[in-house]
Amino acid sequence: MNIFDIKKDDVHFKINKYEQRIDIEKAFSHIKNNILQKYDERRREKKKDNDKLIRRVQNMYDDVENKIMSSLKKILDITNYDEEREKC
Q: Is residue 8 a contact partner of residue 16, using CB atoms and an 8 Å limit?
């Protein structure tokens, strides 16, 4: 009897189909979990990048605000000095 003459009976076929289905489900769940993990990592990285950007912009805003305030203070001090000088 040649090995190629043996046909799979219904039981073997169903067992093989069941094993294939389980293998496919395992592969799918593995891929799904990896995708979710990568998505979570990307989301965390984006949040970290957004936080860095927010801090950087906040620092720039604070610097500009301080420069404007110091400039205004100098201008006001000069005008006050000039006004007091004119009074004398």
A: yes
State which amino acid sits at residue 4: F
Q: Tens place of pLDDT for every residue, the chain, 88 residues?
A: 445 555 555 555 566 676 777 788 888 888 888 888 888 888 999 999 999 999 999 999 999 999 999 999 888 887 776 677 777 6
**DSSP, res 3:** G
Give the C-alpha separation, 54 to 41, whole Å.
20
Per residue, the 3-state secondary structure of 14-48, as one string, reads HHHHHHHHHHHHHHHHHHHHHHHHHHHHHHHHHHH
For tokens 């006001």, name the residue.
Answer: 76
- Domain residue limits, the chain: 10-87
